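Me: Here is a favour to ask of a fellow structure person. Could you put it straight underneath, so I can go through it closely?

Assistant:
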Amino acid sequence: QVQQVESGGGLVQAGDSLRLSCAASGRTFRSYDMAWFRQAPGKEREFVASIRWSGGSPYYDDSVKGRFTISRDNAKNTMYLQMNSLKPEDTAVYYCAARGIVDSQYGYWGQGTQVTVSS
């Protein structure tokens, strides 16, 4: 099992950058595919980006492609989301999620970190 804690959120202006971190506990971090999701007020949670257990195959939602970069450091049990050129519509609570490499669903979630982008 893996547990995650997100950090790095905050209040920024449009066009600014932020880097979110997801620190995972346990020695089996490299056994999990990881992803970022977000949930804006009054909206359903949506997929942002994912990365395989090996660090390969990064995948992005079209809304963030070219602006966000997902990465991970298995030696540090940490995943990152570099967010550039932030827009007000990026405002949301960002969640780190994990799934076993043979699982189809993300079953492990962090508590989330708030990102607010002002115009």
